[in-house]
Automatic annotation (TrEMBL), chains A, B:
Coiled coil: none
DNA-binding region per Swiss-Prot/TrEMBL record: 45-64
A Pfam family assignment: TetR_N
Family matches, as SUPFAM superfamilies: Homeodomain-like (SSF46689), Tetracyclin repressor-like, C-terminal domain (SSF48498)
InterPro entries according to UniProt: DNA-bd_HTH_TetR-type_CS, Homeodomain-like_sf, HTH-type_TetR-like_transc_reg, HTH_TetR, Tet_transcr_reg_TetR-rel_C_sf, TetR_C
DNA-binding listed as a keyword: yes
Protein name: TetR family transcriptional regulator
Stretches for region Disordered: 1-24
Keyword annotations from UniProtKB, A to Z: DNA-binding, Transcription, Transcription regulation
Amino acid sequence: MESGTQVPSASPGETRPGGRTARTRERVLDAVASLLLEGGYDAVTMDAVAARSGVHRTTVYRRWRDTGGLLADSLDAAREHPWEPPDTGSLLADLVAINRQIVAALTEEPSITRALVAASFRSPTAAQALRSFWEDRYARAAVAVDRAVRRGEAREDIDARHVLIASSAPIFYELVLLRSPVPQDIAERCARVGLAAAAVRS
Amino acid sequence: MESGTQVPSASPGETRPGGRTARTRERVLDAVASLLLEGGYDAVTMDAVAARSGVHRTTVYRRWRDTGGLLADSLDAAREHPWEPPDTGSLLADLVAINRQIVAALTEEPSITRALVAASFRSPTAAQALRSFWEDRYARAAVAVDRAVRRGEAREDIDARHVLIASSAPIFYELVLLRSPVPQDIAERCARVGLAAAAVRS
């Protein structure tokens, strides 16, 4: 569930994959990521992004409008990047693997994910884009729960999103909101809670 | 677990309960709360707090130093306020009751809790105070799990904090980070996950 900022080669309105519009977007979003990591939300001004990316400020204003627009497009670009949950053969191990990706994204230094979460408290546009990004990841991760149902590991009427939230929410809560020191076994322990949640009738 | 900003009648260094120092603190922290609710972190400037509270700015600077100091003292004051988890007779119902308090604190309009969480991303001092506040609440809430152990509802070696986090983290995650619409049954559903977590060997 890491929110990498890699940008796909084509973007909406772009006919030549990897063409000039896509390259402009890549340069701008790279600038957004580096400014955000360096100085947080306040550093991501339109002028700083234009200067860092070498893209004309008129273009930056026309295509992205404001800081919220730049952050939202960064999240949209991350969402366009292919992601599939690991397929290990058991629900518990799948949840552990997903949780390890989340822990890695939240504890890397600097962490673009933590920076985007912080920015979401400054911009409703960024907050909406962050929500869309995470909901997309939960929708894609649901296949891990579907596989568990097919293997007979989980009930047919299980709510995949509930299981994935039970398994991952404590990690976000501890590392992002409580800012706890990271327990060594947090990915495994929270995955076991997710597995227990899978047995709870929703 | 609501983070009300009610201030106790005595504060450190104050000999007369309800005396002048305590009244000054109460006026200043009331001003902090109202400014935070009106305009977020950026509105809580030392000058605005002095003007709103009617306390001399020299006093505000000397006792609270900066915006982070004001927010941290607001959380310390809330932590000094007595709080005990409800005692309903069963672990599940205790967890539901705690979760309902969390949902109420996060969904009231305006929400001082949500505002303090947002501010914690602007000030490391406020972030540390928020963590202390929550850890204090989890420590106090542990008695609900202890009672469950005595009633034979939970294993002796249970980690109370893990159970309380499993029960409450999805609420914070959904309402604060995902900013999801609030499902009607979220307090109950998440409490059942906490109960399931109580059976997980940690």
